[in-house]
Amino acid sequence: MNDAIEEILGQLTLEEKAALCVGAGPWKTVSIERLGIPGMVMTDGPHGIRRSSDLDALITKALPSTCFPTASSLACTWNRDLLTEIGQALADEALSQDVNVVLGPGMNIKRSPLCGRNFEYLSEDPFLTGEMAASLVNGVQSMGVGVSLKHYVMNNQEFKRMSINVIVDERTMREIYLAGFEMVVKKSQPWTVMCSYNKVNGQRCSEHHELLNDILKKEWGFEGLVVSDWGAVRDRIKSLRGGLDLEMPGPQPANVQSIIDAVRNGQLDEVVLDESVRRILTIALQAAKATKKKDFDVDGHDALASRAASEGMVLLKNNGILPLKKINKIAVIGYFAKEPYYQGGGSSHINATKVAIPLDEIMKQAVDCEITYADGYTFDGSDQPELIDEAFMAASAAEVAILFIAPPSQTDTEGVDRLDLEINHQHVALIKAVTAAQPNSIVILNNGAPLVMREWIDGPAAVLEAWMMGQAGAEAIADILFGKINPSGKLAETFPYRLSDTPAFMNWPGELNEVRYGEGMYVGYRYYDLKEQPVLFPFGHGLSYTTFSYSNPRASTTAFKDTDGVIISVDVTNTGEVAGKEVVQVYVRDVKSTLVRPVKELKGFAKVELQPGETKTVSISLDKRAFAFWHPAYHDWVTEEGDFEILIGASSADIRQQIMVFLQSTRDLPCILDEESTFKDWLEDANGKIIIEPMYLQMKEQFNLMMGGETASEAMGSDLMGFILEMPLIKALQMQQSALPASADQIIHGLLLQAKMGKREKV
After folding, report:
1. What pLDDT score was predicted for residue 761?
2. Most-buried pick from 27, 563, 723, 732 (CB within 10 A)?
3. Low-confidence ranges of the chain (pLDDT < 50)
4. What is the spatial distance between Cα 266 and Cα 488, in angstroms, rounded to a whole number?
5. Left if phi > 0, otherwise alpha if psi is -120 to 50, otherwise beta: which for 189?
6. What residues contact 739, with CB distance under 8 A and at least 6 apart?
7. What sign does the CA torsion over 158, 164, 166, 167 have?
């Protein structure tokens, strides 16, 4: 392939090279017939193929495709194999519609539950995000169709997303916002990565040399092409230099000409242009190898969508009413029971092949029941007291009431953030009225992001989070309600009690075209753990119709080198009466570190299926990165030798077992001491300690002698030695300048030279 690419590259004219770097149309790239260079078709597709019926029009009705559950639901499956299977189905449909690259999955971290596009994103946790996205990517690309990871990076809000400048520190960026992308690039080599509109620390992502060239391409080894989000390019020459290979959409004749002119006048090195063209050619020729199809298995994919929806649905609350048994009269309440709320708005909106209706699916399974229906509300959610009265009467006359509840229309959509986490007044009033009339009430939620429920959560007997469930979600709801399927979804994001509890509350959404990520790396459960802040439902939470016990936790070794990693095992037993699936979650806690770290972090998980009474051993590997943190002083991932606590649980708040292990760090870190380093800094550095410890101990002894036998702290009424520890060494030397053989600056310079060269001479 490389030789073929170089041969083609050598035959291209400057004009042709420039043309290849800009789209030919809204969804097409340029083809060059004389050299056999095919164009590519790209289309939206995070949870379904949105292939425009007219490739030359930016917005037209899409061809029919399977609408799978949105990412907010898929992440809650915690099922890698399922995501791979969905990826294969997406590719199958793409091939049937002549699509080469699917624009997805969406990988932006859910910094705040207010982000209007969170339904398209996977999780608040970068590890879960990376693992689930990699599985989806592997599925798509195994079929000869490419993906486009988006949006790289920190497109965490819709408010001014095309211009906002994100101010973020290096460690937060690396540990939270880049980590998921890094995992997918290294595990799955996506064909393309889509840059976001926003700026990061003052520089547009479409022109960000550090993010696109230094980190993505060089450090992570990304081999594909970087494509712009549609319309994200402001300066085509700066973006080429910054590492953006392909501008979309096209045509953009002025930008093509600007590339030609820039090369000719020396403003742009043709070597830079060649590198982008080389990447574009590689992907275009790779895409051409795929075998096209005439159609896809509509019914089979619909069944897969139903299975995916059922595994992503999370049983938040259940007093034992579910699954429904021996019920003779059911009241189904809610407009969305007849008109399902199953997907969000914007570029991911799918023209579904078919759509299951919740009321119909309930009636199919409750064949011996008398079922009544009441609207309860209208589509627009306006106050309608008479509809609540009607629902109250229906619920009173039934044995069970099933309410379908969703946030206001256009809440989950591209382009607009949510204003709050509430459902509207009519829905709240409806829940209160129905649950007062009928204690055996079940609330079904259709939404793309967390809702606050403090006003009504105590009323229903059960609450099922069904998410934006895709076209077959209604069938999955009925299967769960009547026990045909045991729910196994676990939350991929925290549900807070109130909006003001959320990590980004004080820094959202920014002002004057700038947003500061003031919460740092404390996003999601990391924040709630640190603050010891109670939440409504924790990260990883999800109930089942059975119960599971965890026993016999063990590590492959209790002391290991960071380069070797460790395998954690635990026995899981189904202690209930029905088969079920459990998600075993492994969190890591650093007992002691030089820099502050989260209380615990998810670093492994596995979903296991168990029959009643069955026990299986679940083993999860933890590699070096599971124990590492990003150190801004070293600009690298660092592991520190010491004890780590391995926490094994059913959620971030439900830890069942724990193990203590000892990690041996194998890396000798370079010395980062400088003129401002304190005694404490010197004593914590391997070389610095040997050099400076004698001096420190001598000072401590002299202070005690000066105080006539009393310790310095007792005499001064303060922790004097603690004060000394925090004093820069050069200040201590300057205070004794008259007794020194050289200036304090000269002595510090010599000591730093010794420390950095590894010469551990005592002073």
Report:
1. 47
2. 27
3. 760-763
4. 60
5. left
6. none
7. negative
